[in-house]
Predict the structure.
Amino acid sequence: MTIDININGKALTLDADPDMPLLWAIRDLAGMTGTKFGCGKALCGACTVHVDGQPVLSCAYPVSAAAGKAVTTIEGLSADGNHPVQVAWRELNVPQCGYCQPGQIMAAVALLDKNPTPTDEDIDNAMSGNICRCGTYTRIRAAIHKAAGVKS
Ligand code: FES
Ligand code: FES
């Protein structure tokens, strides 16, 4: 079937099985590869994107559920990579291998949109679904606080 969807401000009509995970529509049909495949089972957060501003796990979210909605991926956060969260991430050298980081950043942006001054506990709760095999959690938390300082 054809599915009308808006990805990063671009209106697209995708020819897709309605049950196709949104992740594959983004990567394979729309050609945006910033969003990563980790587990494919809603367990790691690597595939986190926003649908109408809410964080979703795109590996477990059918593309048909995003029809008529606005999807934002890591590529759509900022035209020049300078969203305050991206800047904080760079300044604190958060990534190690980097694989989980697009999902971490999308989860962090969603948290700060909802809660501009999160506590450590708020951060740990909001980010608990995003796994980092390199263990960058301490820097992630610090970068979220830094971005919160810039935004607030
Ligand atoms: S790839 Fe979607 S949660 Fe792991
Ligand atoms: S930076 Fe390597 S998995 Fe998170």
